[in-house]
């Protein structure tokens, strides 16, 4: 089985491939395959429905704009509209496949071990993700502070972001201190509780999938 | 084994917070540090934990553990000897769950997976939270968070534990539990320092007691401890609510703070034009109450302001009448310089006739805030920020003003001026003011009403313990 880094690499590779080719067949096959994996892995219907919902506007939007405003013949425009629309679908469902059972922690830890990404960067990102829910609260409190002083701070006003930045700087400094106090030293060696080794069968799987894609591209006519 | 500070000086912007301080913490000691907010307790503990000067301040003198220089040690070596427990339980975890957080910390020490498992199990058992290993931090109460934080520094193997107001955000029972736990740990040989502004519950457990005075530590002789464990006196506050109108009405009001129910209130009314003091033990949920009344926190049941549910008020309209003095002054500021802030509130004051330029500048003089016009509000000292923040909100002069710890970090002279400012403005403009403060001894001089927590409910009480 592929580890998290290999899955990310494969997803990037396929994305590159479909960005450079114009096969509706391939895009649909990728999307359907991802969807089948999602179903086999028992992802909730709500989640899958959400992916479709997210897809509706960009898919229709890209399809119509290429179909209506393309430079070629009508058939060419129709084809190109389908290519672009199905490409968006493939991206969304491959993204969904990528995230199955993968937490930011696992992905970042795996990238750190496999690609030697710095620990400071990894834990910086994880810390920032943990702060996200608190931002919402901070925004509400900043807006209230403004209104209490007769000033309505809208989302486009820099004051709001300046204040949010003040909060973020305070939090990040506190967190950095806590991390230091818990023994985190930039650049120092750390052990790894969980190993995320490159998997040989993962490489084989990747190679097979990439080959299969070439075959599909050869055979597909639309 | 000892943690030693010699001639330690810590300064911010050339202003010494800690001045030529000498201190020894021997293994097996449980030491209490007291001193008003802003006296430098936090700065001292952060320096002893080796976080300063890396995270601010200029440090001279030395901090050593058995001759080894704490300030020069790499973090992963230092964490095995000394660690700090922070005041705010929310800011000290980099990971979302207990297990991931402990793994993060123990990987820093290059431990193997089996050693990590052992340490986690051992340290969680020590604080009695073995079942919490897979819990997410968002589901823990303040007391549980602090216990987990304590377990984490135990797991790292620190012999010296420094705790910076660890009980500021937790309930009474957790405070007692943790104090007992600290006593046990010190008997096992840990050297522990706790900074706190409330001496309750310590004197039968500690081995040494210091006051932070003028940037140095003054040892308090054991014979004098009883003075600090002050016998509270009772002051009578006369109620005169009959002649004023109810402004707020609570009915079966329930407020949750995370998982914990912090208020469960039957019917209670708050009256117009009064200055009301609300008292209760640390961590009982006073800030949550104020946030709720300031439309910043959800609630169940009913909280009516002027015949309309608070949750049904449009925030924009509500805040024309109601203001909250935030516990942290910087949350109140919306401009950069002191002058911009003052101009903004004068322009938006609900009482522009009262707040003439002369009156504002007279108060600035009394508050010792003159000559700061061009200064950024964020570079003012804690005390200056607090005074400015209060003046700004009183110039705005909303009909109802909630003051959350308005005296925190102020010296005695400032407290006197601030009390005069609050009372004079409140009486002249007929404002309704509600105050939460630890400094009840000062505030009781100016309050009209007193409401006290009894468990998780509020009740009017003529007697105030100060």
Automatic annotation (TrEMBL), chain A:
Pfam families: CbiQ. It is found in: Membrane. One of its GO terms (cellular component) is plasma membrane. InterPro entries: ABC/ECF_trnsptr_transmembrane. The keyword Membrane applies. Keywords: Membrane, Transmembrane, Transmembrane helix. It comes from the Bacteria. It is a multi-pass membrane protein. The chain crosses the membrane at residues 20-41, 48-68, 88-108, 203-221. The keyword Cytoplasm does not apply. This is ABC-type cobalt transport system, permease component CbiQ related transporter. It comes from Fructobacillus pseudoficulneus.
UniProtKB/TrEMBL annotation, chain B:
It is a peripheral membrane protein. CDD domains: ABC_cobalt_CbiO_domain1. SMART domains: AAA. One of its GO terms (cellular component) is ATP-binding cassette (ABC) transporter complex. GO terms for molecular function: ATP binding; ATP hydrolysis activity; ATPase-coupled transmembrane transporter activity. It holds the Pfam family ABC_tran. Keywords: ATP-binding, Cell membrane, Membrane, Nucleotide-binding, Translocase, Transport. This is ABC-type cobalt transport system, ATPase component. It comes from Fructobacillus pseudoficulneus.
């Amino acid at each position: 089985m592929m580890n998290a880094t290999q899955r990310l690499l494969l997803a990037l590779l396929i994305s590159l491939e479909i960005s450079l080719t114009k096969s509706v067949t391939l895009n649909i096959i990728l999307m359907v395959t991802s969807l089948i994996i999602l179903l086999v892995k028992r992802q909730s219907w709500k989640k899958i429905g959400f992916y479709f919902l997210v897809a509706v506007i960009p898919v229709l939007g890209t399809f119509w704009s290429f179909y209506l405003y393309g430079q070629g013949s009508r058939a060419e425009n129709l084809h190109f509209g389908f290519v672009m629309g199905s490409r968006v679908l493939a991206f969304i469902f491959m993204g969904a496949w990528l995230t199955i059972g993968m937490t930011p922690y696992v992905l970042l830890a795996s990238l750190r071990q496999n690609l030697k990404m710095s620990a400071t960067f990894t834990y910086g990102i994880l810390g920032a993700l943990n702060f996200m829910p608190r931002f919402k609260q901070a925004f509400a409190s900043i807006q209230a502070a403004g209104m209490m002083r007769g000033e309505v701070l809208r989302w486009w006003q820099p004051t709001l972001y300046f204040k949010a930045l003040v909060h973020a700087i305070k939090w990040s400094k506190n967190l950095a201190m806590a991390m230091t106090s818990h023994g985190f030293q930039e650049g120092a060696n750390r052990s790894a509780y969980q190993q995320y080794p490159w998997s040989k069968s993962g490489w084989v799987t990747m190679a097979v999938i990439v080959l299969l894609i070439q075959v599909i591209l050869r055979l597909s006519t639309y | 084994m000892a943690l030693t500070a010699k001639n330690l000086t810590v300064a911010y912007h050339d202003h010494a917070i800690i001045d030529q301080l000498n201190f020894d913490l021997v293994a097996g000691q449980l030491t209490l540090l007291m001193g008003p907010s802003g006296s430098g307790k936090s700065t001292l503990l952060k320096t002893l934990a080796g976080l300063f000067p890396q995270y601010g301040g200029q440090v001279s003198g030395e901090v050593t553990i058995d001759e080894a220089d704490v300030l020069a040690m790499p973090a992963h070596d230092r964490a095995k000897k000394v660690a700090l427990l922070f005041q705010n339980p929310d800011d000290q975890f980099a990971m979302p769950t207990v297990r991931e957080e402990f793994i993060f910390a123990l990987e820093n020490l290059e431990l193997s997976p089996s050693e990590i498992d052992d340490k986690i199990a051992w340290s969680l058992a020590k604080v009695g939270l073995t079942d919490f290993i897979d819990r997410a931090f968002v589901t823990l109460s303040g007391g549980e968070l602090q216990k987990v934080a304590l377990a984490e520094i135990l797991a790292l193997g620190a012999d010296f534990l420094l705790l910076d107001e660890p009980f500021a955000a937790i309930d009474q029972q957790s405070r007692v539990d943790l104090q007992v736990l600290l006593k046990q740990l010190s008997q096992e040989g840990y050297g522990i320092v706790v900074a706190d502004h409330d001496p309750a519950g310590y004197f039968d457990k500690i081995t040494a007691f210091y006051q932070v005075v003028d940037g140095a530590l003054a040892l308090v002789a054991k014979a004098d401890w009883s003075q600090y464990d002050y016998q509270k006196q009772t002051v009578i506050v006369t109620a005169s609510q009959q002649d004023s109108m109810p402004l707020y009405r609570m009915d079966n009001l329930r407020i949750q703070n995370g998982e914990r129910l912090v208020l469960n209130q039957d019917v209670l009314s708050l009256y117009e034009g009064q200055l009301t003091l609300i008292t209760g033990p640390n961590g009982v949920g006073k800030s949550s109450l104020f946030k709720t009344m300031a439309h910043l926190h959800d609630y169940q049941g009913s909280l009516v302001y002027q015949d309309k549910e608070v949750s049904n008020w449009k925030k924009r309209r509500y805040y024309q009448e109601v203001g909250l003095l935030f516990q942290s002054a910087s949350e109140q500021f919306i401009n950069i310089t002191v002058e911009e802030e003052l101009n903004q509130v004068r322009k938006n004051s609900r009482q522009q006739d009262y707040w003439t330029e002369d009156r504002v500048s007279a108060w600035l003089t009394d508050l010792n805030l003159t000559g700061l016009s061009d200064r950024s509000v964020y570079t003012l000292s804690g005390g200056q920020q607090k005074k400015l923040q209060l003046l700004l909100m009183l110039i705005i002069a909303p009909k109802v003003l909630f003051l959350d710890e308005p005296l925190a970090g102020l010296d005695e002279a400032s407290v006197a001026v601030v009390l005069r400012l609050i009372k004079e403005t409140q009486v002249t403009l007929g404002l309704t003011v509600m105050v939460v403060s630890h400094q009840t001894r000062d505030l009781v001089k100016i309050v009209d009403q007193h409401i006290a927590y009894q468990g998780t409910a509020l009740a009017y009480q003529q007697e105030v313990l100060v």
